[in-house]
Amino acid sequence: MRVQLRFRSAKLAATATVTAVLLAGCGGSEEESGARGGPEKKTITVAGLPLADVAALHIAIDRGLFEKEGLNVRVQPVQQSVQALPALAHGQVDVIGGANFVTFFQAREKGTLATRVLAEGARNAPHMMEVLVPSDSKIKGPRDLKGKKIAVNILNNIQSLTLNAVLGKAGAGLPEYRQVPFPQMGSVLERGQVDAVHAAEPFVTALKRELKARTVIDGDAAPTAGLPLSGYVTTDTFIDKYPKSAAAFQRAITAAQAVAAQDRGAVEKALPGYTKIKPAEAAAIGLPAYPATSSAAQLKRLISLMRAQKLLTKDLDPAAVLYQPAK
Predict the structure, then answer these.
(1) Is the pLDDT higher at 299 or at 78?
(2) In what helix (H) or strand (E) does residue 244 lie, and over which residues does it extend?
(3) What is the pTM of this model?
(4) With 0-12 CB in 10 A as exposed, 13-18 as middle and 19+ as buried, what is 147?
């Protein structure tokens, strides 16, 4: 039996196709009523991943929090946040939701794109990322993963960064990583093309249900427990051109983050709307932590870990990376 994870994102194809979809969906710039005190740009296009990380985005839409700020937010699904980078760079999307910070901090350091964090979206939490193996695998724990092939969504990114740290803390050797998009992890695991997968929710739950996959590592282990993972990222260019729109988006998503942090039921209600996960499964999955406020100190933890694993060549100032509207 070949596992087919039926998430909406699985219908998306390659990067070029996704970029074309984003381009087609945007329809040009919109500069409106900033001079009258409202957002300069009212229609904001967000490239969003089908992950639990972006639950607050959908809560904000469903509860009219963006509308309250004078914004009309449109969501363009993407399979990997890195796929939306070209569209973000060219202004065809305004924000990436669920953007893993590793990619965007690297882009800022290299000067390829001056990215800025509007708000944190998700922090590591118990069982929201797990290393899974087939039920009959001989892999029982961290030390058994040395030299094994593990699928991650993107190479040299948040999953390998955190797993390397966890394995290092446990005194275990490192595995070999293979890049496999989340929706395809079930197929490669079932075929034996990898020994394990490092998946995030809601894919963890789907793999356990469809493959009876078994957990060998909870990704929220020391020293990465509570680490910032992803958020809502835009560019310096967008903020400079549309400061009121950026501030309005930040207020709305921060309000939605507070809802998600306090009300798991709101997240469970949102998840089936942008993934194929069923309501009963939404009630059982491991959710990330949704920080109600963004923290430069927490981002510093991630930056330090990236420096230690040579994913950054120098320190970034987290206060400069995190957007703070002018008062």
Answers:
(1) 299
(2) helix 243-262
(3) 0.85
(4) exposed
